[in-house]
Amino acid sequence: MIKQLILAATIGLATLPALAVDIAVAPGEAYLRVTEGDKNILFVDVRDPVEIMFVGFADTVHVNVPFMLVDRSAWDEKRNVFRLYQNPDFIRQIQAELDRRGLGKDAEIITMCRSGSERGEPSAAFLRASGFPNARFVIDGFQGPAVKDGPQAGLRIRSGWQNSGLPWSGKMNPEKMYRTDRRP
């Protein structure tokens, strides 16, 4: 069943721009690559841990290292949300996770955010620009984009990790989560 889901998700690659295909990976493909024992991969959830707490977590990821963090002291009036800022230690924290696993900069780093577009793809592009040539991102991230029309407009119910039948939970794994009480 999982392999059929992966095939269906991979077909979605044909709809991506040519540049993105090189950097994109379907959710099912990421799942298989990690669970079937590819040891030269670091799978990173790049969401703010508070978002994970409310949306859900895929324990298949190796670690949570946020690409963007929420600044709860600054409000974005235009978007009506708290301001996000780039994690200033993102590259150092990714390198530390690679070192911890005995992996080099040439390892494949797969990032996953909520929808794939605002943090997933940008974090993979940032990693590539910072000397990690095999960084990629999960297409449609953990939940996928919001439905635009109809009675379910605004809900994230069509794609991404969570909606592809891949394992996830509402419970976080404290050993994998970004925690300021344990960061150097």
Describe the protein in words.
This protein is α/β, with parallel strands linked by helices and about 180 residues long. It has one domain (about 1-165): 3-Layer(aba) Sandwich (Oxidized Rhodanese, domain 1), CATH 3.40.250. About 30% of the residues lie in helices and about 20% in strands. It has 6 helices and 7 strands, in the order ααβαβαβββαβαβ. A hairpin with a 4-residue loop joins strand 4 (about 70-75) and strand 5. Helix 1 (about 1-10) packs across helix 3. The relative contact order is 0.20. Mean pLDDT is about 85; it is low at about 1-20.
Topology-level CATH name:
Oxidized Rhodanese, domain 1
Order of helices and strands: HHEHEHEEEHEHE
Quote the beta fraction. Answer: 15-25%
Physical arrangement of strands within the biggest beta sheet: 1-7-6-2-3
Q: How many individual β-strands?
A: 7
